[in-house]
Amino acid sequence: MKLIFLILISAVELFGQNFTLPNNPLEGRIVFEEKGCIECHAIGGYGGNVGPDLIKKQYYGSFLQLTSVIWNHIPQMNRMFRKLHREKQNFTATEMMNLISFLYYLRYLGEPGSVSNGKMLLQTKGCLDCHSIEKRGGKIGPDFAKTNQFGSSLFMVQSMWNHFPTMSEQLFKSNKQIPLLSGKDLVDITAYVKAASSSSKELRMTPGNPNNGATIFKLKGCIKCHSIDKEKKNKIGPALNEIKMNMNVTEIAALMWNHAESMAAYMKNNSIKWPVFKGTEMADLIAYLYFLGFEDPPGNASKGEMVFTEKKCAMCHSQDSGVGPNLTKGYKLSSPVYMIQKMWNHASKMEDQILTLNEEWPMLSADEMRNIYAFLNLPVR
């Protein structure tokens, strides 16, 4: 038995995370409220104050990094449930996926901008040399106040991107540099333009669909220069899986914008057409880039076996225990989502058993969870 196990480890030591990106990460907000999370945790001031406000104290990491934080917090949460006389809620796999996606997405949404700083930036970044607003500025480009899509950061970014070839040509003629922008700059400029807008209709763009963004990444030719797989690294542009995208939407957009000049030069030299975005394509692409950090890297099955033993999972989940299901024999999990869902739903019963045995709650890091998942998914033991 042990020999077979070792042979299998050498052949399939690493396991991928068979993951599907969410179509709408904001759906998890419904789960967050319906399952009562909001009674203890606020989102930007709306909700309870028992736990931290998840906008003010943001948690960022892969799916299993976030679930590791939740798992290690369960005993404290259970004590609070008992104190408040509230029942701990169970989750379906879909609800668990939506909730973690939503928590992951909170950092992406960013914060409100500064109107006064946005007004100053339009001047200092040279935008008013070509564009006007509140009866001041140039006449070359459209009046910001009369274009309703400029009241949305994502629409503004998309418009700026599509406009880049014309803008860069105009700046070159005027012997001026293309302005570099931070994510905060974009938010502040949008806040000011929105406040000063004379348009009666405001256009808003959805935060983005990561799955649609994966398709756009290929259709717009991004994949020709930027790889997302370290095993198939493209040397023209940076490998995007190696860039930490723990940024909000406008920070990612600013990163793209600041890269546009060198990208345009390469495309011109190689007769490549500039990619133009329409509808929600820019939002979808940026959402996809942000979610590149959501999927966990593969785990190591041999290390997972050690964690399974060291954390005393085997006390209840081995062949001879008779306490819980035997996880060492064909307990196949289709994705980490199902593993976490079952762990969460089982947690109260597990805590009771741990207290009976006078043991401590098994704290798990993200790496340990990845390795346990790999171990549980070995086809034969």
Structure description:
The protein contains 14 helices and 4 strands. It is an all-alpha fold. A hairpin with a 2-residue loop joins strand 2 (132-133) and strand 3. The longest helix has 21 residues, at 63-83. It is elongated. The termini are close together.
Secondary structure: number of strands: 4
Structural class: mainly alpha
Gross morphology: elongated
Low-pLDDT windows of residues: 1-17
The profile of the biggest β sheet is: 2 strands, antiparallel
Distance between the termini: 7 Å
Mean pLDDT: 82
Number of helices: 14
Q: Share of helix among residues?
A: 40-55%
Order of helices and strands: HEHHHHEEHHHHHEHHHH
User: Approximately how much beta-strand content do the residues carry?
Assistant: under 5%
Strand order within the widest beta sheet: 1-4
Q: Radius of gyration from the CA trace? A: 25 Å
In short:
With 381 residues, the chain is mostly helical. It has helices at residues 2-11, 28-34, 63-83, 93-109, 115-124, 153-173, 183-196, 210-219, 249-269, 281-290, 301-310, 314-317, 336-356, 366-376, and strands at residues 14-15, 132-133, 136-137, 299-300. Helix 3 packs parallel to helix 13 (336-356) and helix 3 (63-83) crosses helix 14.
Main attributes of the structure:
2% strand; 4 strands; 49% helix; mainly alpha; 14 helices; elongated; 381 residues; two-stranded antiparallel ribbon; single chain
Layout of strands and helices, then pairs:
Layout: H1 2-11, E1 14-15, H2 28-34, H3 63-83, H4 93-109, H5 115-124, E2 132-133, E3 136-137, H6 153-173, H7 183-196, H8 210-219, H9 249-269, H10 281-290, E4 299-300, H11 301-310, H12 314-317, H13 336-356, H14 366-376
Antiparallel strand pairs: 1-4, 2-3
Helix pairs in contact: 2-4, 3-13, 3-14, 4-13, 5-7, 6-9, 7-9, 8-10, 11-14
